[in-house]
Every structure is written in structure tokens, then in C-alpha cells.
Amino acid sequence: MIVLGAFAAMGVGVVLALLIAAGVYLMVQGLRMRRAAAEMVRAHAELEALLAAAPAQAVLVRAEGRLQVSPRVSEWLGWSSQPRSLSDLHAANWGLPADDGAALKRDVDAVLRASRPFERLVRTSDGARALRVIGERRGDAAVLWFADATASQDQVARSRTEAAELNEAFAALSGLIEAAPLPMWYRDADLQLAMVNSAYVGAVEAQDAAAVIARGIELVEGSGQGGPRGGAVAAKESGKPQQRVLPATIGGARRALRLYDVPLPVGGIAGFAIDIEELEQANAREKRFAEAQRAMLDRLSAGVVQFGRDRSLIFCNQPFRRMFAMRREWLSDRPEFDRVLERMREAGRVPEVRDFPGWKAERRGWFLNADGAAEENWHLPGGTHLRVVAQPLPDGGLLLIFEDRTEQVQLASARDTLLRVRTATFDNLFEALGVFAADGRLQLWNNRFRALWNFEEEFLAGHPRVDAIAERLAPQLANQARSALVPELVRYATAERKQRGGRVALADGRHFEFAAVPLPDGNALVTMLDISDSRRIEQALRDRNEALEAADRVKTAFVANMSYELRTPLTSISGFAEMLHGGYAGTLSGEAIAYVDAILDSVERLGVLIDDVLDLTQADSATLEREDVELGAVVRAAADALTASARRHRIEFVVEVLRSAGRVHVDRRRIREAVEHLLRHAIGATRSGGRVLLHVDGDSKRARIVVSDDGAGMTVEEAARAFDRFAQPGITPGQERALGLGLPLAKQFVEAHGGRVSLVSEPGQGSLVTVELPRR
């Protein structure tokens, strides 16, 4: 029993120990679980706080339609009480505007039925808040995340507005760049062309901007100053704008361009080019002009010196250095204005003044003279006169001009003396002289002018106009209307600078020759000379000339009548001689026949002389009857008329008419007579057994007749007067007349047709006469 009791006690102890151990264990686990629950509560609180502070708040929609809504969502949507089911929200249209509520309802239904997520931006009913809703399926429920997007939407709106403004500004800037008349471009980070404007495309003569960028066509060529991209490289490395001047060929012309490369903050290099060719040319012209101006100033007789704004000398010409004895070395140091005046005083080239510092201070005021140029006359020791002009310059400098007028002063004195001499000379001339100004007023006159027209000294002293003078002298003229000629002459001489003259008769019978001569100073000199005596002599000579012309007409008529009267006995002599030669009076001896031949020759020569005399008396009044004729036929007719005479004198007569002779528009009879005269002269000047040649040819403009012989020829003096109708005829060795009226008549007939005659002859070599006749 005891043993059993002991075992029982031990069992109870074991159970109690186990119960205690279990209690301890449970207590430990309870404490651990309590700590874990507290940790979970804390974590849950943190999560709730984090969720409450999160920008996105959740709305949980379970499958059966129950809702779990975040208080902030209710606040955002303006719900007065927490909704319990989805049907309540649908019925209230989610507290949103109709469109947004309907759209959100469809999206939630799509998530619950088709697990299709969505994202939508909605506005609250009052429009004050924008909410972004993102829906997705989580298990058997749908989670709707609501985020307040009001600030971001405002920022987006502002960004869109700014983007629109920037786009508009970019478009305007792009349009401005595109419309710019100067080439512009943009290079990317690799310095490759990324954009060019139309001016750039036109300058490189490309098709379009895309072609320029694709081919990398540069505006300038060559490797000077780093090549086309040298400025861009320098701008990228230095981060500062770069500029340089390079040549380029634009439109086939060589131009100078100033290139600008500007680094941009966003990367890349912008560039543009300005055509400075005209500026360069203008600078070159300005430089050449300045050089030419200084070269011209060096050639002036006046001294010129220029001072800068700091009153130092910057230029002086050679006459200035000579005038004031200035050494080039001293002037090269650019002395100041005061030092120059002092050096001029040392050379004795300034006026003598008591207060030289005060005088010098006054001259310094030339730099600030607001009234423009100042002018002074300096009377220097030794009788030198200088005219000084001080011209302030726009840049604050001063230009001084020194003109030596010593010679002009002397000339003015000499001019005064000459004026006195001229006045005395005018007053003692036989001619009447008057000098009128350009306005028609009388300026100078001599005593002869006043006495001729009986003008009072008081009237002339008032320098009357030429109209008043013409009115005063009209009653003294034989024809009073001629008084208007004086104003006209003065106007011609002063306004039109023309010289006119004429004659005028006075009422008392005197005659005056007048002339109006323009003077170099614009005035007019009117002169009148008494030509009454020469007028009377002229009339006497005119009467005598008319008497001589009447006597010449009587002489011409007498010669013509005598020529006709001489033909009657000459015809009888010729007829009887021909009858004797023909044997009508019986057979004649050889000696008698020779006498008869001599009579016939003399009759023929006498007939020719009579015809020549008639031609001379009638030639001046004769009228040409022109017609188109074959020149060869006319010449052959003349040759046929002289063939018998040539044969009788045993002379070889050759006629050559070429086809080029052609047709001429002439008086057939006069040209035939001219040729006959030339042939008759050639036959008469040729000995027996000689030769006479008649040659005719021509070209498109003129026809030519050549008559040559191998007779005795002429001396130079005889040839010179061969065509003179009043020259004494020469005598051949056979005592025959060598020169008569034939050559003068031939020349007269040819020249009447517009042709010309020339003669070439040498003693013992014969003569050659050439006639040229125009076709028309």
C-alpha cells in the first residue's frame, strides 16, 4: 500500500510537473503571441497611416457588390455618407458628372466581369478636382485606385500651353530663319550639318535642304582658317562665338563672307554668313579715296594740315611743309596744335601780335567752333598774304587750309590798273562799244557809244536795260522796227552764247556794222562801226560788176553769132575743095592734090575750133539730157568719127571696149563730144606712124575711159594748165597746135556728170588721159 501510495504520489507529481511545464509553455507562447499581435497592430497602424497618406486611395468592390471605401475618396467625391454597395454608387452616378459617372460604371463592370483593367481621368461634379482612377482585378474583388491629379493636370495644362507657345515660337523662328536673306545653318554635336535655310540652299545651288544635309555641302570651300568647319570647331572648344572672313563662290561670282559660329546651350553649333563683298569693296574704295585725296592734296598749291580730336597732327601735304619750313622728321612725331603754331612763329609765318599766348588760345577755339568754318587773312612780314580757313571736323578734329594769295593781291592791283587803262582805251576807240550783263543791263560804254545815239550821261549812269535803250534809239533808225534787233543780239550773246552780227541804217543816211560777242564772264559786248564810206564803195563796185556781167553777156552773144556767121563761108570752102579733090574741075597734079588736102585739113580744124567756141559759150547754160546708154556704143561712135582723120595722118588707132564698160546714166551727145575732144587732142599730138589707144572698162561703181598716145608729151607746166580754157596753146615740133579747147571742154562735160578727168604726161613719152564716170 505504501508502495502504491508512493507510486501514486510520484504520478501526481509528474502530472503536476507536466501541468506546470505546459502552463509555463503556454504562458511563454501567449507572451510571444501577444508581442506578435502588438507588432501586427503597430504594423497595421503604420500601413493604415501609410495608406491614408498615400496619393492613391483604394475602393474595394467585392464580387457580391459590397464596398470598402477610403474616407479620402469619399471626401474627394463629395459623398455625404459611406456607400455600402456598388448599386448605391451606380445609382448616385459615383457623385460625378453624367458622362464621367457612366464611363466609370462601364469600366468597373468590365473589371468585375472580364477582369479588364482600365485607367480613366474624371472630374468631380464641382469641377474643382481631377481624379485619376485605375481599376484592376484582385482575386474575386476589384480594386479601384483613386489619385488626386488636380495639380498634375494643372501642370500638364500649363505644360501644354507652354509647349504650344514654344511650338509657335519655334515655328516663327523657323519661318524667320527660312525667310532670312543670309545663309543660316545648324550643326549637331558631331559638327555635321543638320539644318539649313533656303538662302543657304540657293547659295550652294542645291536642289533642297535635304540634299544639302545628305551630301554635306559646305558654303565655303578650301582649307583656309581650318576649312569650312574651323569656326565651329573653335566655337565648340572655347564655348564662345567665333567669326572669320572667307571667300565663297555664289552665283558664279566670287564673294567675301563673314562667317559666325555660335555654340548653343543645348549642344550643337548655329551659324550664319553675311555677304561683306560690297562692304569690303566700299572699304577698299574708301581707302583708295583717302589715298587719292591725300595724293591730290599733295598736288594742291594750298597748304593743308589736319589735326585729330586729341589736337595732334595726323596729316599735312607738301605745300604746307614748304610754306612753313617744316621738316618731315619733326612732323612724323605728330606734334600738337600749339607746338605747330609755335614752330610757325619761329619760321616767321604767323602775323606779328603782342600777346601771342592769347592769340594762340583764340586759335584753339577753332576746334570747338559751332558756327562752321572760320576764315582769316594773315599779313606776314615780307609782304606775304595768306588766306586761312579753319574747318572743324565731325570727329572733333580740325582741318586748316593755307592759301598763298600774295600773287592774287598783286594781280588785283594790276587788274585795277588794267581796268583804268581799259576805260581810257574804250573812250578813245573809233568803234561804239557797250557791255551788257546777263540780265540785259548796260554795264560799260565808251564815249563813241554815247555820242552815236545822243544818250545823256545821266541815262547811261542808271545802267538801263537793253529794252529801254532800244526804245530810245528807234527814232534814229531808217527802219524803226530794226530796234528790236539789239535786245535779240544781247540775248543770243548772253543766254545762248552765240555771236551774231549785221548792219543797220540810220535815218541820216549813215550805215553801221554791228556785232554781239559773248564774253567769258557771261556778259555780251556790242560793237558798232561806221561803214558808210565802205558801203558807198561797195555799191560802186556792185554797179561796176553788173556792167561787166552785161558786157560779158554781149561778148558771148557776139561770139556765138560770129561762129554761126563763119560757118557759111567755111562750108563753101569745104565744098569747093572736096569738088577739086574729087576731080570735078579736071585731073589735078600730085602737088595740087596735096594743096587741096591741106585746105581740107585746115577747114576741118577751123570747124572744130568754131564748134569748141560755141560749146564754151553755151556750156554754162546747157542742160544735160541724161539717159541709160551703152558706154561702149557711145565710145565707138566717137572713135568712128575720128578714124578717117587718124588714117589720113597715118596713125595707128586702136579701140578696146571691155564688157565691164556696161551702162551709164549720161547725156549721150556730151559724153561722145568729150571722147572726140580727147581723141582729137591725142591724134593732133601724135606724129605720123604713131599710135593712139582708146580703152574702156569699169566696175560696179564707175566706168573708165582711157585715151593714150605716144606723141611728144608735155612738160609739167603744160600738163598743169592743159585743162585751162584761157591758157596759151603749145606748138608741136611740126608747128601744129598741141593744146586747144578740146581738153577743157572734155573736162567740163565730164565734171558736169559728176565724173573726173586726170592727165599724166612726160616729154617724149606721150600722154594718158583717164576719165571716170559714176554709174548713177
Automatic annotation (TrEMBL):
The keyword Membrane applies. The chain crosses the membrane at residues 6-28. The keyword Cell inner membrane does not apply. It catalyses: ATP + protein L-histidine = ADP + protein N-phospho-L-histidine. Keywords: Kinase, Membrane, Phosphoprotein, Transferase, Transmembrane, Transmembrane helix, Two-component regulatory system. Gene3D superfamilies: 1.10.287.130, Histidine kinase-like ATPase, C-terminal domain, PAS domain. Residues 561-776 form the Histidine kinase domain. It comes from the Bacteria. InterPro entries: HATPase_C_sf, HATPase_dom, His_kinase_dom, HisK_dim/P_dom, HisK_dim/P_sf, PAS-like_dom_sf, Sensor_HK_Regulatory, Sig_transdc_His_kin-like_C. Its EC number is 2.7.13.3. Signal peptide: none annotated. This is histidine kinase. It comes from Sphingomonas hominis. The lineage of its organism: Bacteria, Pseudomonadati, Pseudomonadota, Alphaproteobacteria, Sphingomonadales.
